[in-house]
Design a protein that fits this description.
Elements (H helix, E strand, L loop, with lengths): L1 E7 L2 E9 L7 E4 L21 E6 L16 H15 L4 E7 H12 L4 E9 L7 H12 L2 H5 L1 H12 L6 H19 L1 H9 L5 H6 L9 E6 L7 H10 L4 E5 L6 H4 L1 H12 L2
Parallel strand pairs: 3-4, 3-5, 5-6, 6-7, 7-8
Antiparallel strand pairs: 1-2, 2-4
Helix pairs in contact: 1-2, 5-6
Length: 275
């Protein structure tokens, strides 16, 4: 994979490009909290040939800019993703979103339907549902100055501990969370981590949920059976909201399905690309 920065209205987004340009449509991958494009590292090698793959570090995550004063709402992330597509010369693409990235993908499909050919939602936030532990932490941190008193290493350690149960393999989970949260410790800082937690209160997600019936693109919903944060029932609720959507439950997988079962994730995307 090769990566580079793109300047979008004064904010730099980092993305990785993989795959090959061919007859197949491009695929844009969007991660959730607190991840980065690294979430898809084991999915990419399993993807079919002939597709341009774009793995985005959303603003305030991974190698992208700090986002000290930027809008971190789902709709703002969606607008930046559209602008990134313009910069990369991508007219339309299949969108794959995990967690909060699934809500961003929903927002792109609703606001810019001509830019989305297909939609794959993986353990996605939706309606009023957010990962319970992270949402509780966000409420606590929003109400008190304790986060800045703790500092980035200790705060990210608390987030690390609260999210480790989202992985089947604890060693894989530790490595992934070390990588995701290391960006906040080394470069992004505690203010950005707090801002990302606070953004999990975004009321637009529930509004978007009420509009999902307008999505007409082929949609696949992939869910870890043992997700401790977002129940399987949410996958079926999304299916009922989006006409023609399919649901696949990955037995034994938890919240971070792209890390738990990358082959199954890639196979689900490949099947969607053939629909």
């Amino acid at each position: 994979m090769r990566g580079e920065f793109v300047d979008l209205a004064g904010n730099r987004l980092y993305y990785y490009a993989a795959g090959t340009r061919g007859a197949g449509e491009p695929v844009v991958f969007l991660h959730g909290f607190p991840a980065s494009s690294h979430l898809w590292h084991a999915v990419v090698p399993e993807m079919p040939d002939g597709h341009r793959l774009v793995l985005v570090d959303m603003l305030g995550f991974g190698r992208s800019d700090r986002a000290d004063v930027a809008d971190l709402t789902v709709r703002a992330h969606a607008e930046r993703t559209r602008a990134l597509m313009d910069e990369l010369g991508i007219a339309s693409a299949c969108f794959v979103g995990h967690g909060m990235g699934g809500s961003v993908a929903q927002a792109v499909a609703l606001a810019f339907p001509e830019r989305v050919t297909r939609l794959c939602l993986v353990n996605s936030t939706a309606f009023e549902c957010w990962p319970r532990r992270a949402a509780l932490m966000a409420r606590v941190l929003s109400a008190t100055p304790i986060a800045r008193m703790l500092g980035a290493p200790l705060l990210s350690g608390l987030v690390h501990g609260s999210l480790l149960s989202g992985f089947v393999d604890q060693e894989i989970g530790r490595h992934a969370l070390d990588k995701y949260l290391g960006a906040f410790n080394s470069r992004l800082g505690v203010d950005v981590l707090v801002a990302q937690l606070r953004a999990m209160h975004d009321p637009a997600v529930e509004i978007i949920g009420a509009e999902l019936g307008r999505i007409t693109q082929p949609t696949a919903i992939l869910w870890g059976q043992r997700d401790p944060y977002l129940p399987v029932a949410l996958a079926y609720r999304l299916q009922r909201a989006i006409t023609g959507a399919t649901v696949e439950i990955v037995e034994g997988a938890r919240h971070f399905t792209p890390e738990d079962a990358p082959e199954r994730a890639a196979a689900a995307i490949a099947h969607l690309l053939r629909r």
